[in-house]
Amino acid sequence: MSAAVACPFCFIPFTDYRLLLHIEKVHCESGRSPFIPDEGLEEADLEEVSGSGLGSGSGSQRKVDENEYSEYSEYCECPVEDCGEIIPLHQLQAHINMHGFESAQQGFPEDYSAESTQPSTDDLASDSDYLQSGVDHTPSTSPGHAEPGFGGPGAGPSNWRKHLLNLPHRQKNDVQLQIPQGVQAKQVKRLGKKELGTYHKEERMPDWLFDMITKHNYKCSEGIIPILAQYIQLNTKTQYAYLCNPATLHISKLRKEGGFCGYRNIQMLVSYIVATGANGAAAFGYEIPTIFQIQDMIENAWDRGIHLEGRIELGVLRRTRKYIGTPEASTLFQSLGIPWGYQGLKNKEGDPPTASEHRLYDYVENYFSSCPGVKTRGSVRNTTRPPLYFQHHGHSMTIIGIERTVKGTRNLLVFDPSHQDPTSTTKYIGQKIDSSRANAEDVLKFYRRGPKYLSAYQHFEVLQ
């Protein structure tokens, strides 16, 4: 008799073909199993099962084409109560561990900075082959035109969805989920065309979500970067780290919000602009805009002809949950006269799998180390640089610095909008850390994204 194998979605053990039958009947991606007959279903029922007529109560949906969104078959909704984030399956366990760390019910998160073999950039081809058109934009006040396609001379982030969302990541073995103590979770269900098509074709988000975001806007922690500087100073495993301007806020999502990471990262970049009075602060009224104000600004930019292909791809953006990324962020900044620069990094044929990862480290470190007046000695190297908008397949974050360990491994330091700062950080805001009780190495794990995390991807985008 064959050994039992656990279902990757609900973890119930099955043997042989019974597992396949179970997945087809219970976890079928299309929501309609070939083992369940259609007889007896009314026409309206068939329409609902097939994916059309998916309403949010206050809006309507268009039917999703059968060939669309197949790249999302490796995604699922986070099972932790009140999260609602759409997560790639290979990141799900680490994402759940972060929730445990937030609630202080378990130790510290998985170390994303675990070492991997990092080849010297001397062994790789020239950076110019992989830094896809580092474009610095000094926008004009006149209507703009669509940026050239990705990858060519003068290219920008205009084809972000086509390249970044369709890019296959290196496969990793599935792991059975371990739910941290104290974290409420529900059954994991793989998402397919029906669920993610709902957001992409959505004409209006649910009223309850609109009301919640309108009322509460966002969660925010200020003064986090000076605390991280203290932890870095205390950490014996850090050789040095560069940090962005300390005025940058960590903005995170609300409970039950779902995935608005693109908007939250824009808000973090704007927090720097507003706090420092940098170019563009007046355009934002010296306030951080809401999600719906950002949507209005992007729509207004499209009306002026700036990056118009974004409207062609997304349709209506106002009051929807449609995902945005570097194209929409650059559209917003250009429309307000805020200079911006773009870098796309991807592997070239024949490159080592982690080539783009190391060029990402090189780019970020050079960005911070070249800041005028920065001190290049000591473990903490504070700069006045703005943070960076960082995009990879399936998620975006805000880069606030970069760390090099005593072993030579480099880690990005990020504010992740999917997670709030742990109490081990927030309790010291405005204070000096008690070094006798602080575990700097464990705290820094929450903010690191290093080889263990980034090696799953071969394509990155950075907006500055």
Would you kindly provide a written description of the structure presented here, covering whatever features stand out?
- This protein has 464 residues and is an alpha+beta fold.
- The strands form four sheets. Strands 5, 8, 10, 11, 12, 13, 14, 15 and 16 form a nine-stranded mixed sheet that branches.
- Helix 9 packs across helix 11.
- It starts with a strand and ends with a strand.
- About 23% of the residues have low confidence.
Q: What profile does the largest beta sheet have?
A: 9 strands, mixed
Determine the number of helices (DSSP H or I, runs of at least 4 residues): 15
* Rg: 23 Å
Roughly what fraction of the amino acids lie in strands?
15-25%
Assembly state: single chain
* Helical residue percent band: 25-40%
Q: Stretches where pLDDT falls below 50 for ≥5 residues?
A: 33-73, 116-155, 158-175, 190-197
Judged by helices, strands and strand pairing, the structural class is alpha+beta
Q: How many beta-strand elements?
A: 16
Shape: globular
Span from first to last CA? Answer: 58 Å
Mean pLDDT: 74
Secondary structure elements and pairings:
Blueprint (H helix, E strand, L loop, with lengths): L4 E2 L6 E2 L2 H10 L16 H8 L24 E3 L8 E3 L3 H11 L28 E7 L22 H6 L24 E2 L1 H8 L6 H10 L2 E3 L2 H11 L3 E6 L6 E3 L8 H16 L14 H13 L5 H6 L11 H10 L4 E7 L8 H15 L10 E3 L5 E5 L2 E11 L4 E6 L7 H4 L13 H6 L2 E2 L1 H4 L4 E5 L1
Parallel strand pairs: 8-11
Antiparallel strand pairs: 1-2, 3-4, 3-6, 5-10, 7-9, 8-13, 10-16, 12-13, 12-16, 13-14, 14-15
Helix pairs in contact: 9-11
